[in-house]
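seq/struct pair 1
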Amino acid sequence: MRMLSTVPSRRGAALVAGLAVALSACTSEEPEAPPVAAEDSARTSDDGLEGEPGTGTGWLCEYVSPATLRAAVGAEAQSPRQLVTEDDEDSWVCEVLVGGPGEQEPAVRLAIQLGEEARDLARERAEAAAQVRGGPEHLGVSFVSPGLITALTLCTAPDAQDRGERIPYTLVAESLGETGEEATAGLRQALTEAAKRLDAAVGCSPSQALSDEAAATTGP
């Protein structure tokens, strides 16, 4: 059983609130309830499985579609569940678990992290990945490699008084199983929709992230 934070800080609560709005359902159905606090999502259900079921239409971590999960697993997923594994002032991480009681394994991970350190670590990992290429500009400075999508953007700080006060936000979607084209395309779509909702919730500027990147590259 994972050890999870159970008492979010004040700033963490602000981040969770923003992400709750950002990660509302991306289907045409009515939005599902937002991600719950870590202590709630860590509970074990009556069937002995850790985590919670997804939406009624099978979406997990709000943006991982059934098709994406099948592609990541390589088959129809057994007993998929969603579990918030990090929920603090600087990060929100949700994993899709598959497998029976005592055999659950993470198949897909979706993460949103704040700050320069998270950005630098994610960039280093993304640039070192096999077959990496540049991603879409609407994600900011982004990288696409088999089974891993990374977006480095700038969004309003959760506790900012000025909506223009932006800090680095890092969004990552990854498959912990299969990494073929179908899984990668599904992860890219999941991250795109998450980025749209995050922008609506707190305000983001991927174009500014790209401009800052260009300035840093061409500067003296």
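seq/struct pair 2
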Amino acid sequence: MKPTPPLVKVAVPVPLADAFDYVAPGAGPVPPIGCRVRVPFGRGERIGIVVEHPATTPVAASRLKPIGAVLDREPAIGEELLSSLRWAAEYYHHPLGAVLSHALPGLLREGRAIDELPEPAWQLTSLGRAQDPAELPRTARQQRRALQFLRERPLAASELKALDVASAALARLAEKGWVEPAAAASRLASALEPQASPGAAPELTGDQRRVLEEIGATQASKAFRAYLLHGVTGSGKTEVYLRLIAAELAANRQTLLLVPEIGLTPQLTRRLAERFGETELAVLHSAVTERERFDAWRRAYRGDARLIVGTRSAVFAPLPSPGLIVVDEEHDASYKQQTGFRYSARDLAVVRAQRLGVPIVLGSATPSLETFHNARQGRYRTLALPRRIGSAGTPKVRVVDLNLHASRHGLSTPLVAAIGQHLAAGNQVLLFLNRRGFAPALFCPQCKATEQCRRCDARMTVHAKAGVVRCHHCGAERALDFACRSCRGERIAVGAGTQRVGDEVAALFPAARVARLDRDSTSRKGSLAAVLSDVAAGNVEILLGTQMLTKGHDFPRVTLVGVLNADQGLFGTDPRSHERLAQTILQVAGRAGRADRPGEVVIQTHHPTHPLLTCLLERDYAAFAALALEERRDAGWPPFAHLAIWHAEAARRDSAIGFLELVRDTAAVDSGSVAVLGPAPLAMERKDGRFRAQLLFRSAERGPLHRLVERTLAAVRGSAAARRARWSIDIDPLEI
């Protein structure tokens, strides 16, 4: 009698909750758990992950299909990571196959071999760097282009081909000794910053030493513990990270360092390169190519890369020799994925640290209220860096009442006077504008109409220099026309966007060099680095920007920070609006007065006596957090409640609402202690031509909430209403 082949359960990246049973291939060993396999699925094939070797199956033997191919000799997803991803799939109610696929680089999802040879890459030799591309003859156009591009950083052959540089031109340059093959590690390190010799570590403060001693003891014991490193801006949190990383490198263990947006933290990446020199780095973020991501993932997977740096998705990096996880600016909303698999990288990092048995450090000057609460409850250990480094001290804060001082394009008379004083002293000035609800729009004084997007419930924003109005939600553009579409009256631009404020500043201070730091002005590759370089070199006197200014930049010559409108968020309906505003104000204010230059902060507001502002300015963030937590407790919002939001969108309003009504009615049958609220349209109901609505589940306890979500999901997933709308579930949502 022919023996029955072993069973293999495979998670496939499809919108179905269950994994699927297959039989192992006839030849060769049973594929280990965590390996990729190619399996027949429907009318085609899919690449999935082996998640179990079941002893039995409810599927009839005649219906079981064999695995088509085993793609890995060793698991692509190790035991700990698979366990953490199983937790994530269950907690966020997302299909396991889709979660596992999300954790792998795109090339592995396509079936490429892990041990595939790295793609050839090229870099300049010292002789090539000494050449002037302009001196090459016209007939050597591609060689000239290659020299120009390779001056910036090593490039893969495919990248050079896309830049119209053929392999023959590279071969001729190699014959001359001007270029040479580059290792993947060196070109990824160059993607961070040019390599430098290891820099000398600065002298530690007493606060830093105490922090390092405590975390160092946990590092030495190789045990899990979560730390909240609550340090004011400029207190030396980054230096603490670097010392902790150095200890892990000395022990030949890996560190995972998560940052909100790597493109916005060039100072950190430069310090890593300077401090650790040739230490092999793996860089995982959206700016690298798929091939670079694959190579970086593979070096982490093999344990060759001992420092893995990246944004949200880097939390999925393999860590065969784990030592430490650091989450910088842990409060930042960028750590929460807002579409599809809606995970929190910060929370998943804590889960991974626990399963790996390593310490995790959550650093911030303005911790999220959830993290602050966890620390107060004893789940995390709080370590404080309460003082700034150097003699600058805490910046002086001055509030300007806009009810008493009129402003022109966002600039009050006291702020203009302060700008003049700081410029006269040879210092730099930073002006912060919270763009949300504060961008210039076309307004008709005659009929009161504004220019609306045809596909979204939103106003179009004026971009005067480009001569267009643009929707910042769907990207639609129209030519800038000051004739009103309703009454043909003459329209005006109202609101102080960064462009208009920049024009006003330039008119008031014509001798000052002004630079903008916002999404529009830094959309071109390299433009952000160029602006930051100019600021560091003193080539800019006034820096004007939006939320990007709160992302951890170090501007040592800035002595004045002006917050043009602190009122945004004071009266928002979202339970987190006060928390976000407090974090924004303190983060941007922290840019004033670094190094040995004392700083000043001018905050413009129509509500100078608002309790949030007075608490922040007269006390500190910890006092604000304690007050805000009491308000959250009284109102029944996180962290004293647990939330799940069902999102739905469709081309027809009734399709989106209809699906959510089905969810509501299904849940109401047995909702128990869970409140079901809605459905309700979003504040911007229509975006990019689709109608959007949501339904909220709220519970004082986590368990009942998740059980209700799971029961309801199982009941509605296959319904006709579910097929008529695009929908998702957001656990622990950041916006309501």
